[in-house]
Amino acid sequence: MRGKVRLTSSLEDYLEAIWLLSRESKAVRVRDVARYLGVTPASVVNAVKMLARRGLVEHEPYGYISLTDKGVELATQIYERHTILTCFFRDILGLDSNSAEQTACILEHHISEEGLARLVKFLEFVEECPDRAPYWLKSFHHYMKTGKRLVICPLRGKQK
């Protein structure tokens, strides 16, 4: 994306919510975003004004909110970070879906591009492992559940 747009975590959440809602329905209104995020309509109006000033949304008072091309691009990036982090917390660390979503929502705003790129590579590495669920990952999930290691530590191959 040309000319990096800096947004607060809150504005990123609004942008992501507008994008998600616009995928379900062409018409996104202030009340839809307020309901989705659990905030007041006044908060949405203020956020939309800030997003509009940055060229990310268009909104006529009492009308629909639509994303600009720049807004779609940025919202897509935010959503991809969220999805990658959710996958990591749920599929690798074994958090339940709700906890994984909440944790991802917090961290998606703070992870560096390099950190995200390495996380993507790690997920690809695990995904492409010939043993669909690698032994070391099964062992980790067992350890998280029971607090006990399996007989053989998969990373060292030594008896424990």
Defining traits:
7 helices; two-stranded antiparallel sheet; 160 residues; mainly alpha; 62% helix
Characterize the structure shown.
With 160 residues, the protein is mainly alpha-helical. The chain has 7 helices and 2 strands, in the order αααββαααα. A hairpin with a 5-residue loop joins strand 1 (57-59) and strand 2 (65-67). Helix 1 (9-24) crosses helix 3 (41-53), helix 4 crosses helix 5 and helix 4 packs across helix 6 (113-127). The longest helix is centred in the middle third of the chain and has 24 residues, at 69-92. The radius of gyration is 20 Å and the shape is elongated.
Number of E-state strands: 2
Instruction: Count every helix, treating DSSP H or I runs of 4 or more residues as helices.
Output: 7
User: From the helix content, strand content and strand pairing, which structural class follows?
Assistant: mainly alpha
What's the shape?
Answer: elongated
User: Distance between the terminal alpha carbons, to the nearest Å?
Assistant: 50 Å
Q: Can you write the helix and strand succession as a string?
A: HHHEEHHHH
Indicate the proportion of strand residues. Answer: under 5%
Unreliable spans: none
Query: Radius of gyration from the CA trace?
Result: 20 Å
Determine the mean pLDDT.
89
Q: Trace the largest sheet across and list its strands.
A: 1-2
Question: Could you outline the blueprint of secondary structure elements for this entry?
Answer:
Blueprint: H1 9-24, H2 30-37, H3 41-53, E1 57-59, E2 65-67, H4 69-92, H5 97-107, H6 113-127, H7 135-146
Antiparallel strand pairs: 1-2
Helix pairs in contact: 1-2, 1-3, 1-4, 2-3, 4-5, 4-6
